[in-house]
Amino acid sequence: MASGTGEVSKKLKLYSNWRSSCSCRVRIALKLKGLDYEYIAINLLKGDQKSPEFLKFNPLGYVPVLVDGDFVVADSFAILLYLEENYPQHPLLPKDLQKRALNYQAANLVSANIQPLQNLPVLGYIHEKLGPDEEIPLAQTHIRKGFATLEKLLENYAGKYATGNEVFLADLFLAPQIDGAVRRFNVDMSEYPILSRINEAYKELPAFQDAMPGKQPDTPPEARA
Known about the structure:
Blueprint: E1 2-3, E2 12-16, H1 21-32, E3 38-41, H2 52-57, E4 65-68, E5 71-74, H3 76-86, H4 97-113, H5 120-130, H6 135-154, H7 169-183, H8 193-202, H9 206-209
Parallel strand pairs: 2-3
Antiparallel strand pairs: 1-3, 2-4, 4-5
Helix pairs in contact: 1-3, 1-7, 4-6, 4-7, 7-8
């Protein structure tokens, strides 16, 4: 594990991987809320997540992990809700209960029904059992199914962003998922006009763009934006 800053430890520490969409969600939130943090890179390909040091933070061996003083929280959804409660500046959840539920639904659709089916352990299993040529097609199938569902879910609510004209929780899940679908899995976004439109809006937001995979301390040179 390597620090991405080389600076003295700060209050918040984020154990992150440049390409992890789960980590990206948290990076966006930290930037939206104006929270300074130390970036600690976890190289998933080298197995940093399996080290005894990291497993003390998250026995499951997944990123991201946030350390706030002497408190440790893993899992992006849990981290985001913790940040929302503990650092209320720039709220990630709307006050309206129904819109809040919509944000939970869209976020959960990504985190439970799309992203887990394209992560490294699953792709590795597909590679081993079915062969390398099946990895991308199977990931694309699940992404397309999820995106089609999101289009229907958001069609009566989306504005400039996913659930209106303000950035909320759903956007933090959608932005990295769409970015990964395009860059990593070659998904044709022309079939998803709502998601394509709001993705263009994300490109205008520094907090989003600075958190994207191509701009992280551990991003390899060939993947830098």
